[in-house]
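Morning, I've got a small favour to ask if you have a moment. It would help a lot if you went through both lines with me. I owe you a coffee for this, so here goes:
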Amino acid sequence: MTNRKAIRPDLQFINHLKENGGEDVKKCFQCATCTAVCSLSDGEYGFPRKQMLLAQWGLKDRLLEDPAPWLCFYCGDCSKRCPRQADPGETMMAMRRYLTSQYDWTGLSRLLYRSVYWEIGVLAAVAAAIVLAFTLPAGFGFGLLSRSGPAALSNVMLDRFAPVGIVDLGDRIMAVTLALLLLSNAARMFAWLTRDDKIPLRFYITQFPHLIVQFLTQKRWKECGSSEGMRNWVRHLFLVSGYVIMFTLVVVFLPWFQVNDSSIHWTSLLGYYATAVLLVSTAWIVLDRMRKGSGMHRFSHFSDWLFPILLLLAALTGILLHLFRVLDMPMPTYLTYMIHLVIVVPMLVVEVPFGKWAHLLYRPLAIYVAAVRSRAREYSGDELTAPSRLSASA
């Protein structure tokens, strides 16, 4: 059992939610149509009605303890059927943006989600640092070429332009830094979700494979009752596979991936697959958002546009880089390499620990906590968690 705490509503919470895209939460009058049509909602986590109520009451602490905002995969059925056009699907998305900003101890997520100028500014600052690394005489890139003689300008010598040892070291430092930021934010999320739970450790251990499976497959998405659920899950699975493969090639296998010759290596084949998947998937996502044909694409926050567009640009510049390298065109190869990094590095720095890519860890973590609570309740037959109390009170 857990101790009941005093309810302390935040009167400004609705305004904070609006800043993250939840414009219509006040329209909800608790008819529960949204929960009735949601195929993922159940008696234990009756979303999104309960979360709409908590938002209206300003109970942000209860939302921080509730995994339900992450159990939603935004099929859009709830928004389509809402008689008040309260758009509960987008409100749940706004809650996830808000929660992401609360998990982030640096405070950067809050600034990025609330301000387009901050997001563009941070991306531009990281991009400028990459450009300086290539252009300063004391650095590598063009500064190094000026001391390397004409050979690097007559034939593609990518290792002279961007020494693989330096780039590989930079990749590994960036990967470790981003992983520490993301994992520390995830630890804060886990602490919020479980702070009032009195569940024995054995349940967390036995359910841990559930976390791994959900993280690798996100398979709960295909359980959405809408006709688009399976399609979106398959597209998402391919997109993640391409992203993970490309990230692994760059961070782990760069000495075998960034080569001067144009022959086909095993890394090249993986790179072709990853590039094709990223190109097709991101172009598809951008078109869906432009057409606004489905419920989940009817409204798009700036962050919803930014990530697929950056991925699309990364895939396109990667294709051009490979083409120029195969054709042995030195300057186009070097310029495209620099442009490619100007897109990829800021995207990783911003999106992995602070943006939408972090959701790939937060959602499985919430599903894991929900599974642990469910299994513990099966054994105890008692109400162990804060969300179960919310079910009774809401």
